[in-house]
Amino acid sequence: MRRKGWIENGLVYLVLLAGGTFSLLPLIWLVRSSLMDMGQIFEMPPVWIPKPFRLSNFSEALTILPFGKYFVNTSIIVLFTMIGVIVTCSLSAYSFARMKWRGRDLIFGLLLSSMMLPYAVTLIPTFVGWSKLGLTNTFIPLIAPAWFGGGAFNIFLLRQFYLSIPRELDEAAYVDGASHWRIFISIIMPLTKPALIVVGLFTFLASWNDFLGPLVYLNSESKYTLALGLQQFKGMYAAEWHLMMAAATVVLAPAIIVFFIGQKYFVEGITLTGIKA
Amino acid sequence: MKQKRVSFKNEWNGILFALPAILGLLIFTLGPMLYSLYMSFTDYSGSNVPTFVGLDNYTRIFSGEDQYFYKSLRVTVYFVILSVPSGIIYSFLLALLLNRDVKGKAIFRTIFYLPSIVPIIAISFIWLWLLNPDLGLANELLGALGFPGSQWIFGEKSVVPSLAMMNLWTTGGTMIIFLAGLQDIPRSLYEAIEIDGGSRFDKLWAITVPMMTPTIFFNLIIGIINGFQIFAQAHVMTNGGPNNASLFYVFYLYREAFQFSRMGSASAIAWVLFIIIMALTFIVFKTSRKWVYYEGDGSR
């Protein structure tokens, strides 16, 4: 009996370790390759520890293309997207969770079903619309949607949080004459700070990682985001793996850092999206 | 009288608070949908005046006159068939293991989730390098174990399976949803089966899997919807190749719209995708009655 348990436990750890290796190895391989010179990177059997650590790969990769400019562009888009989502999404979610009005459930239902709509359907007409307004090759098409509710998914997520707050809290305040605005600002917002952080983090990642949006809307190099810069880099230095890996590491690092800062919120957020689905 | 005034005020306040979302729905969803439907019946390059051509765009793709339509559909369905079940089984297995009393649970959870936050462009770079047939780590590892190497994304036969394997790498989010579902299963159910002398396998088959069917159902639908929309990998890594073996549906659509400036035709292609996804979701929903267990559902 004891022996059986021991074997079983061993198997569990074996599978977990194999899975863990599968998850981590590509990332480790990326980072180690980004720190080697052209010769060492191809050595077989593989070398795991760079010798010496070639930090100059980073400065070289980052100066070939104006990555500083790309970084600023990406940051501007991400920042204004995050502000837009947090402001308009929380207002809308409050309305859907805490206020009663005619047509509310219909509109919420439409919002939810819009999550099933392939982005490809709206991509083309939206692009045509922005180009008629002469706003392609600006950041506006990438930022504006965030200011109009910030996406069905985020509204759904925040609404779930808002529904979990006891009704008595705001009803009492409402009877005492507080306006919805006041209840929203001084009761709901402070109570749901973690939820707003979850939405903010998801938005950061989605915007930072976005590839298709910038690809479709931005065409002059001075407007490029990091993702587009990287894509262009691949076209120019396809054989210089050490530089390509260094550039990829730079694009990846902020996402990883943000993930580790907000780790516990992430799990909470993903969990909420999966329950009672 | 007072009551009525309060609710009236509420009515407008409610709409006012939800106004961003309502406008967003009109401007960025419903409006474009209608516009796209209209465009799909026109010959439109993005710069000319759209001319109405009836069903021409649709007959062109369905008749096979545009050979790439069926090709891209086949490639995409193949990818979905490979990636969705494998992703669900893999992440379900990991969640089952992490739901036990293992040491370092939190660390494993983080490690498995980590790849799913990596930007898609960086993911593509990493795997381009790992899967390089001559210089990549993947073939080196296979060789060390005595297996022959693969052409991976550069082989016509192996490109879609390779991308499906890459997809496994990013299923951490699905795993966390499964893990949350597993933690919601009441312990008392397991205790009941223990008293009856049931085995581990009985527990898994009689309790865990049935109780998890709603979560599996959710992940299945999301997986199918996402699987049909794979794009960036094809754009960055394979450019649809080799020999169109990874010409995924959305990549084909993107090419029509933004490289060949056939906005009308691309809109028709987009609507066909929409209908396919709707139909598949509907089928999964319909059959779900047979296999999804809902608590307190008397019919089962």
Summarize the structure.
The complex is a heterodimer of chains A (277) and B (300). With 277 residues, chain A is mainly α.
**Large-scale geometry of chain B:** globular
In quaternary terms, these chains amount to heterodimer
Shape designation of chain A = globular
In terms of per-residue confidence, which ranges of chain A show pLDDT below 50 for 5 or more consecutive residues? none
* DSSP, total strands of chain A: 0
Q: Let me know the average pLDDT of chain A.
A: 88
> What summary fits the major beta sheet of chain A?
none
Radius of gyration of chain A: 24 Å
Show the largest interface: A-B, 90 and 96 residues
Share in β-strands of chain B: under 5%
Helices of chain A, by number, come to 15
Distance between the termini of chain B: 49 Å
H and E string of chain A: HHHHHHHHHHHHHHH
Describe this structure in words.
The complex is a heterodimer of chains A (277) and B (300). Chain A has 277 residues and is mainly α. Chain A has helices at 2-34, 38-41, 56-64, 67-98, 104-113, 119-132, 140-143, 152-163, 167-175, 180-191, 193-209, 212-217, 226-236, 241-261, 263-274. In chain A, helix 3 (56-64) crosses helix 14 (241-261), helix 4 (67-98) crosses helix 8 (152-163) and helix 13 (226-236) packs antiparallel against helix 14. The model of chain A has no long low-confidence stretch (mean pLDDT 88). In chain B, 71% of the residues lie in helices and 1% in strands. A two-stranded antiparallel sheet of chain B has the order 1-2. At the A-B interface, helix 1, helix 4, helix 5, helix 6 and helix 11 of A face helix 1, helix 3, helix 4, helix 5 and helix 6 of B.
Topology readout:
The complex is a heterodimer of chains A (277) and B (300).
Chain A: H1 2-34, H2 38-41, H3 56-64, H4 67-98, H5 104-113, H6 119-132, H7 140-143, H8 152-163, H9 167-175, H10 180-191, H11 193-209, H12 212-217, H13 226-236, H14 241-261, H15 263-274
Helix pairs in contact in A: 1-14, 3-14, 4-8, 4-11, 9-10, 11-15, 13-14
Chain B: H1 2-39, E1 42-43, E2 51-52, H2 56-62, H3 67-98, H4 105-113, H5 120-130, H6 137-144, H7 159-169, H8 172-183, H9 187-195, H10 200-227, H11 232-238, H12 249-259, H13 263-291
Antiparallel strand pairs in B: 1-2
Helix pairs in contact in B: 3-7, 3-8, 3-10, 3-12, 5-11, 8-10, 10-13, 12-13
